[in-house]
């Protein structure tokens, strides 16, 4: 008799890893994404198709798997919301960097053209606005091939009136003995703090 040789039935499935985790889900098949034997076919690839894929093959003897990474590139574009905001002293402010394109490797922020350290998230927050926070804020996104940026402006609200001395005093020459009162009246918002100095040394109330 002649022996008949048969191969164990081979099956294959494709999975995609959830971004930022080791979890994976089966690739949903539809009119655009098809599997022919062990080949995964993606028509008209989109940015959201990017990621790490896993192919798992099995038969009655055992199984094997292999990973691959798909990167669908798209031109970078950025925008900042809001483009202009007016905030009062002590109030919070926030800019959000809206961006498109792929891949985006880094996000950074600048203020008036100078890098702001330790700010690499899409949202830029200021817990309590101060006078020096006024200016232009730029969001910059980059990858190995290109970059894109957008800007938003932070203006100061009506509660930012610089200190103004309303009433002061002139030089005086006195004989020892009598009391003399120096008057200094200032305005501003927030209310300015008044300090006195004698020959460059700051005076305290007890002196």
UniProtKB/TrEMBL annotation:
Keywords: Disulfide bond, Immunoglobulin domain, Signal
GO biological process, one term: homophilic cell adhesion via plasma membrane adhesion molecules
UniProt key word Disulfide bond: yes
InterPro entries: Cell_Adh-Cytoskel_Orgn, Ig-like_dom, Ig-like_dom_sf, Ig-like_fold, Ig_I-set, Ig_sub, Ig_sub2
Classification via SMART domains: IG, IGc2
GO cellular component, as recorded: plasma membrane
All copies of domain Ig-like, residue ranges: 1-71, 75-155, 162-207
SUPFAM superfamilies referenced in this protein's UniProt entry, alphabetically: Immunoglobulin
A Pfam family of this chain: Ig_3
UniProt xrefs under PANTHER family: CONTACTIN 5, IG-LIKE DOMAIN-CONTAINING PROTEIN
Official protein name in the record: Down syndrome cell adhesion molecule-like protein Dscam2
């Amino acid at each position: 008799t002649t022996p008949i040789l048969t191969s164990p039935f081979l099956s294959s499935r494709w999975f995609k890893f959830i971004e930022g985790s080791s979890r994976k889900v089966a690739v949903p098949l539809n009119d655009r994404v098809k599997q022919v034997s062990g080949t995964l076919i993606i028509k008209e690839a989109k940015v959201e198709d990017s990621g790490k894929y896993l192919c798992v093959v099995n038969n009655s003897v055992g199984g094997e798997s292999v990973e691959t990474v798909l990167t669908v590139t798209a031109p970078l574009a950025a925008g900042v919301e809001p483009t202009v905001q007016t905030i009062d002293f002590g109030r919070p402010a926030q800019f959000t960097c809206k961006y498109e394109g792929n891949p985006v490797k880094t996000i950074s922020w600048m203020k008036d053209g100078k890098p702001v350290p330790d700010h690499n998230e899409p949202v830029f927050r200021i817990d309590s606005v101060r006078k020096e926070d006024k200016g232009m804020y730029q969001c910059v996104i980059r990858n190995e091939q290109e970059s894109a940026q957008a800007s938003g402006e932070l203006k100061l609200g009506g509660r930012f009136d610089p200190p103004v001395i309303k009433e002061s005093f002139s030089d005086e020459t006195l004989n020892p003995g009598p009391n003399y009162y120096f008057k200094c009246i200032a305005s501003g918002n927030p209310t300015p703090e008044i300090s006195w100095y004698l020959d460059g040394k700051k005076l305290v109330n007890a002196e």
